[in-house]
Design goal:
- The complex is a heterodimer of chains A (434) and B (303).
- Chain A has 434 residues and is of the alpha/beta class.
- Helix content of chain A is 65%, strand content 7%.
- Chain A is built from 18 helices and seven strands.
- In chain A, the strands form two sheets. A five-stranded mixed β-sheet of chain A has the order 2-1-5-6-7, with helices on both faces. Chain A has a two-stranded antiparallel sheet with strand order 3-4.
- In chain A, strand 1, helix 3 and strand 2 form a beta-alpha-beta unit.
- Chain B is of the alpha/beta class and 303 residues long.
- Chain B is 33% helix and 28% strand.
- Chain B has nine helices and 14 strands.
- A six-stranded mixed β-sheet of chain B has the order 6-7-8-3-9-10, sandwiched between helices. In chain B, strands 2-1-4-5 form a four-stranded antiparallel β-sheet, with helices on one face.
- In chain B, helix 2 packs parallel to helix 4, helix 3 runs antiparallel to helix 4 and helix 4 runs parallel beside helix 5.
- The longest helix of chain B is centred in the middle third of the chain and has 16 residues.
- Classes of the chains: A alpha/beta (434), B alpha/beta (303).
- At the A-B interface, helix 12 of A face loops of B.
């Protein structure tokens, strides 16, 4: 008897492709994506892009800059165009650095201020702190950079660091004897020469993870975190997840609702409707319009809830929110119709859409912010339209970007919408006249 | 007057000839039965008439105007075999939606919805979601959704399948009211008794071809002949064989064909009396459509 039950289930599974996809393919796809995002290889470990502003213009600042550039965990930018259309690159000043962080070009920018020498090896003393301009969107990058900075100073500028240490020693314990002073003066240049040779020969290929251990030394170089967006981090992260979750469930919703098309095929309702004055193009247009409207409503409900319960600042971002929501919902509606017309049965749609939407959500940043992924995964995410939608919401709610700055995101969403609608219309031809 | 004319309709799906030169005509106010075994081509023909199948050859004329698949068919109503309705909508909402699909709006739509609710006997249940409806109620609504826009020709695909005798009577009452207004009906069905009782003319399709067409009497005459079958139950076995009849029950039950009831039945009864028996019961059966159908299409299963 039990054997018969097992046999029925085995046959069902063998003949039910959506069930096979759900059982074996979806978990493996997810495992792969999350392994790539969180595990990675040494070569794929995230490197932090950082702008550096040299306001000190001293030998010490030049050496620190050189040491930072040699650090494998960092991508250091010292020059940048003054505007997106300008191809000439000029040294980055503090205002430009702030703008770069605000626009999301880099997650952090380090300022090497005048009086930098006193900051090195001040051991929390009276040295001038190094301002580190930060983006609340990325809470990890500042921690990583702070740790790397300590390590770079220790490894790349040992003579300056030790010199500062000796000075501190003298200040608190009295001056060195002439012989001690002579020995220190002979030792420090050798220390620097050794460091220079190492930098010239290429720094050791430390991973970010190795370098991050330097964070334990924080305090050797005084760093002051300066959030440039001036927004509360907690509400910013709420707006990100409001968008991320809303877009993911928008995809599930449009897939489910568009699936009614397949129900109508099964029930004969589609055949009947197509026997009336309603043609396939008009039918799809009506369904797309409905999906768009319900999608806009779904996202709006999510954000209003975020505003009421989590103090999400919706009202001061209404125009950007409205534009992004309209384009996102319209494109998602096209995506739902594309999936529904592509699949042959409701069961096939269920399995296929689950796989596609979960993968898209993981790649596109709904489950884990894209800016925290390795560079390759960040680029891979751009093939999904939901990544562009989330980028648009981030621009609106975090970067305070004007509507014009949303054009790239809106353009990509519109292009995807056209692709989805054309493909849906093409696949729907099979239900038209035989 | 002919309102619908199909001439030499041909359609193939791959190597299968679904329609292989079908021709038929439907007169105004007529109820024409379209019969045939499964796979005979009935549904393909109905779909071609509704513009859902593009013919490989042949023509369709509606009210004298030749139709292409893409032409509007405002004068045509289609009632599918499936209960093609929106289950979560009420009866009224379904009618409003399908009326809208057929171009009705405003006062005209409201007037037709009210008419349809009365016509189907669903006025009292108009505001209920139809998922609570019985099969018969859904069938009636299914028909109403196809006739809201006042079509003069209606294609009905198995309109009474799966309903009880009361609902079937109601449905034919509804169709009768339409015919009284001059509406023409083309009915496909496997219910041969219904077709025999309701249809004025019958067309039998098989393998994509019309294999018989005419009134029931014409079909009978042209196929199995008009002879009746007589069955006699006697009080005792006769003294000897009864000429022209076959003993089917211990000498007391006899059956055989009679060409002319008026002329031959009296002589037959005289022979029984002459053989020493008395007739206890007598049945005269005319040929049925079932017999004609099986004669034309055979007894082999079509699957």
């Amino acid at each position: 008897m039990i054997r018969s039950i097992l046999r029925v289930h085995a046959i069902n599974l063998r003949r039910d492709r959506p069930a096979q996809v759900m059982t074996f393919v979806v978990p493996i796809a997810f495992f792969t994506i999350f392994a790539l995002v969180f595990g990675g290889t040494r070569a794929g470990t995230r490197r932090v892009h950082m702008a550096v502003v040299d306001e000190s213009h001293t030998a010490a600042s030049a050496r620190l800059l050189q040491a930072l550039q040699a650090e494998k965990g960092l991508v250091v930018l010292t020059r940048a165009p003054t505007s997106p259309r300008d191809t000439t690159r000029v040294p980055i000043d503090r205002a430009r650095a702030e703008a770069m962080v605000r626009e999301g070009t880099v997650p952090v920018a380090l300022v090497l201020p005048a009086g930098l020498d006193t900051s090195l090896a001040s051991f929390g003393g009276s040295g001038v702190p190094l301002p580190l301009l930060t983006d609340p969107a990325d809470p990890i990058a500042p921690q990583l950079v702070t740790g790397l900075l300590q390590k770079v100073v220790m490894a790349g500028m040992p003579d300056l660091f030790m010199g500062g240490g000796v000075n501190q020693f003298e200040r608190h314990t009295g001056p060195l004897t002439p012989r001690q002073r002579q020995a220190v003066d002979q030792w420090l240049p050798r220390l620097r020469a050794a460091s220079d040779r190492r930098l010239a020969g290429g720094a050791p290929a430390d991973s970010g993870a190795d370098s991050a251990r330097g964070a334990a030394l924080s305090g050797l170089v005084k760093v002051e975190l300066v959030p440039v967006l001036g927004r509360r981090e907690d509400t910013s992260i709420v707006s990100f997840y409001a968008a991320a979750i809303a877009v993911m469930f928008l995809l599930f919703m449009v897939s489910a609702v568009a699936g009614t098309l397949l129900d109508e095929v099964d029930s004969g309702t589609l055949e009947r409707v197509l026997s009336t004055r309603v043609g396939m193009t008009r039918l799809l247009a009506g369904k797309w319009l409905w999906l768009t409207l319900i999608g806009v409503l779904q996202i709006a409900v999510m954000f209003v809830y975020g505003m009421l319960v989590f103090r999400l600042d919706l009202l001061s971002h209404l125009p950007g929110f409205a534009v992004m929501t309209l384009f996102t919902a319209a494109t998602a509606a096209g995506f739902g119709l594309f999936l529904a017309t592509l699949c042959r049965t409701r069961a096939q749609l269920g399995g296929f859409s689950l796989l596609v939407i979960l993968v898209m959500s993981a790649l596109g940043g709904s489950m884990f912010p894209r800016y925290m992924m390795p560079a390759g995964m960040q680029k891979a995410g751009l093939v999904t339209f939901n990544a562009w939608a989330l980028d648009g919401y981030v621009k609106v709610f975090w970067r305070e970007a004007p509507l014009g700055a949303l054009l790239p995101q809106l353009g990509v969403l519109a292009a995807w919408l056209v692709v989805f609608l054309v493909a849906a219309r093409f696949f729907a031809r099979r239900w038209e006249r035989a | 007057m002919t309102v619908l004319r199909v001439a030499d309709a041909r359609k193939a799906f791959g190597a299968t000839r679904a329609l292989d030169g079908v021709s038929l005509e439907l007169g105004q106010g007529e109820l024409l039965g379209l019969l045939g075994p499964n796979g005979a081509g009935k549904t393909t023909l109905v779909r071609a008439l509704a513009g859902r199948v593009r013919l490989d050859g042949g023509t369709i004329e509606l009210f004298g105007r030749r139709l292409s698949p893409a032409d509007a068919r405002d004068g045509l109503g289609v009632v599918p075999q499936e209960l093609a309705l929106y289950a979560l909508l009420t009866a009224r909402e379904n009618l409003e939606v399908f009326g809208g699909f057929n171009g009705l709006s405003g006062a005209a739509l409201r007037e037709r919805v009210s008419w349809a609710l009365e016509w189907t006997g669903l006025v009292e249940r108009a505001r209920e979601p139809i998922r609570r409806f019985s099969g018969g109620m859904r069938r009636r609504l299914n028909i109403a959704c196809g006739v809201l826009h006042r079509p003069r020709v209606i294609l009905l695909d198995e309109p009474t399948v799966g309903v009880d005798p009361q609902s079937r009577e109601r449905i034919y009452d509804m169709l009768g009211r339409l015919r009284a207004e001059g509406v023409s009906l083309l009915l496909t069905t496997h219910q041969l008794e219904e077709a025999e009782a309701r249809c004025e003319r019958i067309v039998v399709l098989d393998h994509g071809r019309v294999i018989a067409a005419g009134t029931l009497a014409e079909l009978v005459r042209d196929t199995i002949g008009a002879r009746r079958t007589v069955t006699l139950r006697l009080d005792r076995a006769p003294a000897g064989p009864l000429a022209g009849l076959t003993d089917e029950g211990g000498g007391r039950l006899w059956r055989g064909p009679v060409g002319d009831v008026d002329a031959d039945l009296g002589a037959l009864l005289a022979r029984v009396r002459a053989a020493g028996a008395t007739v206890e019961d007598l049945e005269v059966r005319r040929p049925t459509l079932q017999a004609v159908f099986l004669h034309l299409t055979g007894r082999e299963l079509r699957e």
